Amino acid sequence: MSSIITPLRHVRGFDVVRPLSIWTLILMMMPLVLLPLASVFIFGTSKGLHSFWVALKAPEAIFALELSMVTSFWATAFNVLFGLFAAYVLSRYNFWGRNALIVTISLPTAIPTAVAGFALLLLWGPYGTLGRLLAPHGIQMMFTAGAIVLANIFVTFPLAFGVIKPVLDTMSRSLEEASATIGATRWQTFWHVTLPSLRGAIVSGALLTFARAVGEFGSTILVSGNLAGRTQTAPLYIFAKFNEGQIEAANAIAIVLALFSFLIFSVLFFARDWLDVE
Fold first, then answer.
1. Which of 39, 50, 96, 102 is 20 to 30 A from residue 81's alpha carbon, by CA?
2. Where are the domains of the chain?
């Protein structure tokens, strides 16, 4: 439920601290957030919208955006399902090693993404632990779109879980118990009672996971090979074009990703009343 925040009245008359605090906050954000984002849009449109549109319509740019969206979608689908399952098990059951599992699921948030990519190479690469077993069968996981999905899954592993589990922990079990008393099976109770109550948490977790996966760079550059038109995602496209000196091409994709992130977090903010659990 959304709450109404009322300001505290420490002084009578004009409160000088209020405007001073607001302007201090804005001034602090200027060099850290606002100006860097503004520079992307200012530079990207400095030569006109036609130049921006031409850079955006390049076949390699379109492919990079499409690949990022598709791989992020599959990573999000897997992690939402896994996060929902893991959150339910760890919220509803107490068992030995439960806390260790929670810590393990949360680890990818603390591990550098380059380390994550390197770890995947050691496991799934041609000479990796599992990669060597798959190679004789002609199965190559690394340097493919599948490797990007694996990297995104690893990096975004805890996000949906981290949003869904706190809701399950604080959810009243009275409705679930009432459902059981009238003869509903565990699956029916979950599908008709528990799952609808998790609507907001699932949507929020999915949006956060998708936004994070679309912008993933550190792990994907190691496992994808960064092959233009084959395994080059949008962040890798920006990196490659910047290194080639094609700043306009890099900036066009940067603008799209910035707008996409702004859209996702705007939905999370303005739809928070709908996403709140009743």
1. 96
2. 15-44, 47-275
Q: Of 209, 112, 103, 235, which is closest to residue 152 (Cα–Cα)?
A: 209
* Residues in Cβ contact with 57 at an 8 Å cutoff, skipping those fewer than 6 apart: none
| Tens of pLDDT, residues 107-139 | 888 889 999 999 999 999 888 888 888 888 888
Whole-number Cα distances in Å, 39 to 34, 79, 177, 239, 258: 9, 34, 55, 17, 12
Asked if the model's pLDDT at residue 172 lies above 60, the reply is: yes
Closest CA to 163 of 236, 237, 242, 105: 105
Q: Return the pLDDT at 277.
A: 47
User: How far is residue 243's CA from residue 250's CA, in Å, rounded to a whole number?
Assistant: 9
Q: Is 276 helix (H, G, I), strand (E, B) or coil?
A: coil
Q: Which residue has the higher pLDDT, 43 or 90?
A: 90
Tell which residue, 228, 72, 206, 83, has the closest CA to residue 151: 72
Question: Who contacts 35 (Cβ-Cβ below 8 Å, separation ≥6)?
Answer: none
CA dist., res. 82 & res. 65, Å (int): 26
The pLDDT tens digits of the residues spanning 51-109 come to 888 889 999 999 999 999 999 999 999 999 999 999 999 988 888 989 999 999 988 88
CATH number assigned to the domain covering 47-275:
1.10.3720.10
H/E element holding 49? helix 49-56
Angle between helices 59-92 and 199-214 (to 10 degrees): 140
